[in-house]
Amino acid sequence: MKRLVLCLTMVTLLLSACRRPTELTVEWQPVDNSVGSWKFFRSEFTLENRGERELGSRGWKLYFSFVRRILDEGEGDETGIQALAAQGIRLSRAGVAKSGDYYVLEPLPGFVPLRPGGKRKLSVLASDWAVLKSDAPAGFHIVFEGGPFGADLSLAVPATVRLDAADPKQTTRFEGDVLPVQTPALRYEENPSFQSLDLKARLLPTPRQVDVREGEVVLRGAVGILHAPGLGGEAAYLAASLGDVLSASITTREARGDAGSERIRLSIDSALDVDGDGDTDAEGYVLEVEAEGVSVVGSDAAGVFYGIQTLRQLVPVEAYAASVNPTSRPAALSLPRVRITDVPGFAYRGMSLDVARHFQTKETVKKLLDVLAHYKVNALHLRLADDEGWRIEVPGIPELTAYGARRGYDLQEAQMLQIGLGSGGDLAQGDGVAFKPESPTEANGGVAPRYQGFERATLNFVGAGHGYYTVKDYEELLAYAAERHIDVIPEIDMPGHARAAVKAMEYRFRKYQGTDPVRAAEYRLVDPADTSVHTSVQGYTDNFVNPCLESTYAFLAKVAQELKARHDAVPGARLLAIHAGGDELPSLAANVWWQGSPVCQQNPETRGLTDVQLFNRFFTRWGGLITATGAAATGWDDIIHHGLDLPGFIPMPWSNVWGWGREDDAYRYANQGYRVILSHATNLYMDLAYNKDPDEPGYYWANFVDEKKTFEYRPFDVYVNGTADRMGNPIDPSAWATKERLTEAGRKNILGMHGLLFGENVKTPQVMEYLAFPKILGVAERAWNPELPAPDQMPALWARFANSLGQSVLPRLGAYRPVDVRGELPDSVGVNYRIPLPGARRTGGKVHANVRFPGLVIEYSVDGGRSWAVYSEPVSAPGRVLLRARASDGRSSREVELN
C-alpha cells in the first residue's frame, strides 16, 4: 500500500508541474424548487470547455459528491420527469460500491461533443430542495479513459455555484415554505437597540450573584498567586492567562500554613453552599476582589477554575485588545471591587464535535477546548468514527487508520475510502486527484477565503478527508482537556454510520485471508453473504455492522478497552462515558437490515429474531462492553426508542423536529428514570445554517439555528420553543397539549445539554469556529442558567444578551489567545466568530442602520466599496449603498446592498 501511495503521489506531483490538461469548469444552480412539490427540484449543471480539445461522446467520466439523491432516469411526476438520456448523459452512483453521495456523470453515444469555447446546460432533478449555496455538489474530478493519464488518476475540475436570492423558485423549498429570505429590512426590524450594561450583564455565563462595590483594585509589578494543595494546575493556568494580558512578574506558590503576601489566593471549601440550600454545590465558587487582593474559593478544583474564568472576564476588554501584540501588554490591570457567588445549574454542559466527516487537528481541538473552558463548558463529546472516516489509532488494528482515515479517488476502494462530501486529502497530493488547487485562495477563484459565510473553496477539495489522532495525540488532547476540567466523551457510532470501520476491516480481511485466515476474520464486521438491502439517510447501502457475528463484539471490546487505556494513561482524564452511537437506522421496523444474513439465521442465538430484536440485542452487548470499562454507556436515544430497557444508559434525545412526533422523547425518558442529556436539533444543532440566506453555510433539515435559538432554548419546557415549524408556519400551542411534560422526578434526571456540530460542512477550522460561535455562547449561558422567565420577558433578556455579546463578549473573543501553560500551542489570536450582517432601511430619504449585537461598528459605502465610512446616525444616500458590520479585531461581515 505504501508503495502505491508513493507512486500516486509522485505521479500527481509530476502532473501538477505540467500545464492543466483540461480546462473544463462546472457551474451548478438550483433552478426551480417548485417542481415535484417537496419531493424533488430542478437544477442545472453548466459545463464550459475553456480548453483546446473537444469533450467528446465517449472516453470520459465526471465524478462529484452531492448530498441530494439524483433521481433515476424516468423518475418523477406530472411536474417533471428525469430525462438524462435525452441530453446524452447518464448519472449514477459512482464506484463499485455505488453507495453514499458519490456520483458519476458520463456521456452516452448521443452526447453532442462540447467543443472548445462551448457551454452546455444539463437539467437534473434531485431529491428535496436546495436553497443554500452549500447544498451544491462538490469535489468535481474527471477521468479520461485511454488518455495520457489513464483511469487510475483523476483531474480536478473547478466548480462554482450560482443562486439568486431574489428568485422565489430558488429560495422557497415548496409551497408550504413561508420562511422569508433574510433582507436588510427584516434584520432592521429584529435587531435590538443599544443599552448600557452593568457588570453582571458583561459576564458569560451570567453569575448567580454579583455585588459590586465602589473602587478598583490594581494588579501591577510582582503578582503572586498563593494556592492550596492540589490547586497547582489551576494556579499555573491563572498565571499563564494573566501573563497574556499583563506585563508583570507572575509567580505561584503552594500554601504551607503561612499567611503569605500574595495578592491572589486560591483555595477550596469542601462545604461551600453557594445557593443556600444546605448542600455543598459542586463546581460552585466565590470570587472576591478587594483592596487586599483577589480570593477565589471553590467547592472543588473545578469551582476554583470557574472562578478563575470569571476573574479573567473582569479584565478590561481593552487589555485583551492591547495584548494582541505581546509587546503591548499593559503594565497594570484595573479590576472592579466585587463579590461574585456562582454555581452551575446543570452538571453536564457540553459541546459535541464531529471530527469523522472532516478531520480537525489536535491543535484546532486544543484551541477549541480552551475557549470552551473560558465559558465553563465541561464536556466535549468527540465523534471519532462515522461513514466517512475513522479518526483514532487503535493499537493492534492499524487498518482502521491506514485505510479508514483516508479518502480519495479509488473506485474499487482497495486502498482507501471513496471521496465523500466533496473532499479527499484536502489540497495535498496522494489521494488520486491531480491538478487540485494549490492553495485555498486558488480554490476560491483567486480571492482569499474569509469564511464569513459560504466560500467557493469548499466546493473545490478544501476539507480534510484524511487524518487521525495517534495514541500520543489523543492522550495529549485528554491531558489538555483535563487541565481545563473538561471530560472527553468518545463516540464510536454503531451499528449504522459505521462504513469506515466496515471497509477498513474488509481491507484487513483481504490483507490476511491468504496467509492468516484467523487473523483475517478476527474483527470482521459484515457477513459477505448478506443479501439485505437498505439505504441510509446519507445514501449508504453498506454502512452497518452485523450484530450476529462474534467478531463484531471482539472488535467493539478491543476498541472500548483501548479507549479505556488511553484515558487511564492520563492523570485526571476520566472516562465518564463512551458514546455508543445508535442513530438513523432506516426502516428498522421493516425488517430490511439483517434478514438476508445467513449468519443471523445460522446463529442459534439470533435465528428468527426481527431486526428490532437484533438491534436491541446488539446494544445490550455493546452497552455491556462499555460498562465493563467502568464507563457509563451513552448514545443517541434511538437506542431505547424500540423498547429496549438498558439500565444506566444515558440517552441523548435529538429528533424533536416540530411536527415530526418525537418532541417529547427527552421528557418521557427522564420521567422513566433515565438520566438525559438534551440534544434537541431544533435549537442545539450548531451545524445548521444561521438563517435563510443563500450565503450561509450548513444544513437546515431540522431548523435554522442561530445564537438566539440556543439562548432562548428552554430545557424544562421545550414546547415553548415550538412556535413555528421548520418552514416558518406558526404552531398553535394546543399542538403540545397531549405531549408528555417533565415530572418533578424527571426534572432531576436532566443531566444537562450540549451544542452539537456535525462535520459534513465543517471543512476548515475557520468554518468550525464560524458555525460554533456565537451559537455555543447561548448554549453555555443556558446550561449554566437553565431557568428562564416567562416568555413575555424573553425579548428584554435577549436584548441584554445581544448587547453583552456586542459590547463585551465578542470583542474579548476577537482578541482571545488560548492559555498555553506548557508552550505546546502555535501562537494564535482570536476566534472566527460570525459577524452579523447589518439591518437597514430607507426612511424619509435617509438610510437607517443597526446591528444584531450593539457595540459592533457599522460601516457604509456609496462608491461601490472603494471607500467606507463609519455609520453613527441616519445618512442621506439616495443611490446604491453597501453596508457591513465590523468587529473590534478588524474583520467584517459580508456586505449587504440597499438600493
How would you describe this protein?
Keywords: Glycosidase, Hydrolase. GO terms for molecular function: beta-N-acetylhexosaminidase activity; polysaccharide binding. Pfam families: CHB_HEX, CHB_HEX_C, Glyco_hydro_20, Glyco_hydro_20b. One of its GO terms (biological process) is carbohydrate metabolic process. The protein is α/β, with parallel strands linked by helices. It has 4 domains: 2-177, Immunoglobulin-like, CATH 2.60.40.290; 184-196 and 799-899, Immunoglobulin-like (Sandwich), CATH 2.60.40; 209-342, Chitobiase/beta-hexosaminidase domain 2-like (Chitobiase, domain 2), CATH 3.30.379; 378-415 and 463-650, TIM Barrel (Alpha-Beta Barrel). The protein is built from 23 helices and 37 strands. The strands form 8 sheets. Strands 19, 20, 21, 25, 26, 27, 28, 29 and 30 form a 9-stranded mixed sheet that branches. A 7-stranded mixed sheet has the order 12-18-16-17-15-13-14, covered by helices on one side. The chain has a 6-stranded mixed sheet with strand order 6-7-3-9-10-24.
Range of helix content? 10-25%
Question: What is the CATH fold-level name of the largest domain?
Answer: TIM Barrel
Proper CATH architecture of the largest domain? Alpha-Beta Barrel
Integer count of domains: 4
Number of strands: 37
Please describe the structure with a list of short key phrases separated by commas or semicolons.
7-stranded mixed β-sheet, disordered N terminus, 24% helix, 4 domains, 9-stranded mixed β-sheet, Chitobiase, domain 2, 899 residues, alpha/beta, Immunoglobulin-like
